[in-house]
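Hey team,

Filing this mostly as a record. A colleague (T.K.) asked me to run one chain through the structure pipeline before their review meeting, and I want the input and output archived in the tracker in case anyone asks later how it was produced. No errors, nothing strange. Just documentation.

Input sequence:
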Amino acid sequence: MKNSITCFLVSITLTTASFGQYNDIYTPPCIKNAIKNQTRTEKGLPGDSHWQNRAEYKIQASLDPQSRLLSGSETINYYNNSPDSLRYLVIKLLQNLYKDGAARDYQIAPDLPNDGVVVQELAIDGNGLEMDNRRQVREYGTNMYVILGREMALPPGSMTEISIKWNYKVTDFYIRTGAYTDSSFFMGYWFPQIAVYDDINGWDNEQYTGLQEAYNDLADYDVELTLPSDYIVWATGDLVNSKDIFAEWVQERIDRSQKSDEVIKVLSAEDYESGNILRHSGDNTWHFKAEKVPDFAWAVSSYYLWDAKSVVVDKSSGRRTWVNTAYPPTATGFKKAIEWASRCIEYFSEEFPGIPFPYNKHVSFNGQEHAAMEWPMIANDCDSEHEEYLAEIVAHEIAHNYIPFFILSNERLFAWMDEGMIKLMGEKFTELYGNKRENFERLNTTQMYTGYAGTIYDVPLLTASSSIDTRFNFHHSYAKAVAANVFLLEMLEEKGIEKPFREYFERWKGKHPTPWDFFNTMNEIAGEDLGWYWNAWYMQLGYPDLAPGEVGFDSKAGETFITVNNKGKLPVPVIAEITGADGKKEVYRFTAEVWKDNPEQFRIKLPGNVQIGEVIIGDPHVMDIFPEDNRWKAESL
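Output structure:
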């Protein structure tokens, strides 16, 4: 018997709704104002008046691995492209997370708290400010407010120069960044960075307490990092003085790997033993440049192995991305990470989402002991002997170069916007190797959401991420969010829409999409208002729980019907295994769209008077928190 998304033997009565019928989803005043001001549109497109601020960073920093003191000076040219005069600036000092007494989402070791970021000098357009003068500078948690006032306000279309001299002591590794050993560091969230000022909320005033991740404008970076001579640096951007840093034989391997389809061992354990990797015996200054990226991170080690190759990401132009992995000699599965990294970049570029990888390089650095964390062009990944797990981890962090870094979504408020999509990208990549997402041994979002759904903590996806209990962040922002995307994708693909998320990425490249921009874009792609779906998954309470109801024969219609009850009112696919009285079985599959007009009940209809012996609703692919009521059996059987 035939298995299909909608079996041809089954008729579904669906009323075709006029576009806009369901246009009653909650829309806050800030989104309505953005549409009114034409920075965004109801069609899910950036408006004619869309704007974004930007910055140019010039940073000189030095790290003393022995004392762990990181000292830096930077100049930020900040461009106000908004229609507003800015009377104050917000600068993020994210390493204040480790300041003694700081608010944190996680407990840290007693010896980790320190003085946070010590700002030694601060100037605006050459005018020095007094750090202890609250009329000029106010520091709250991880935000520093620079008061300009009415007279010094930054008018629309102008630029200001911010100069900062600072230092802080790098802690042992904790919450994404820090020192792993005396000679291995990963540096993220490491420099004073200007916050986003956007058309929705103005300044991003969210505190960084450990759970939140990124929200940044595009910027240009010119970064010089000075370290002792036995350290190698991997970072966002291009190393513009590579030939002045590396010995000729190392540079030859680097050059070859940037064009090679095969893995090149740029640095091996034997190379470290033989020495002469770098040209100079004294301190080296590594000079990196990156244009139009939302952040900058770097990693250093005096002993990490380095593999590299390249892959074609745009067949029309032949453009390649240089793929790198760096890991300690003791790594297990990570020695194969170069293959996972290169394969997923090809898959993302060609298949899902089907957009050439945004950057010309990527580095997967093995630092974290568990899970991983992303920055543009570089990720901090854990190691694992389990290939499926490691493949997804590597792919997941690389996929973040699309969200949030390609479209600049706000992870600090709506982590599900990127994590739910990126988890799906990683899962779809891993599924290429024969294991469906619902059968994953680790990070199984289907199982995780099943255990979380229907609890008091199962709040609507639209809930601000900073309000989510850290114990349930993964269940909410990843597991629940990826389920919503999976079932949405199934509905759109059944309509014949190929690569629907590609349009969303292209529309909002570098433009800070909100959840409503995503909803409206999907409505446009689908050619109908999907408000019923947005309401149920993103704005209302509900849980996955289907069960068979009445089974009978409608003599007037000449049809046998099987009623499926949606007890939790969350629209999920319906998979029904129907066994006839003769013992023959058929499996019928329907997308979540069957709940479009009636969120509580759906009828499967079979032509004629069919004797039904048993009905089982459910499938490992679809979460159901009460599977014990998923079976109906005829009394006579």
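Quick notes for T.K.: The mean pLDDT is 93. The two ends are 22 Å apart (CA to CA).
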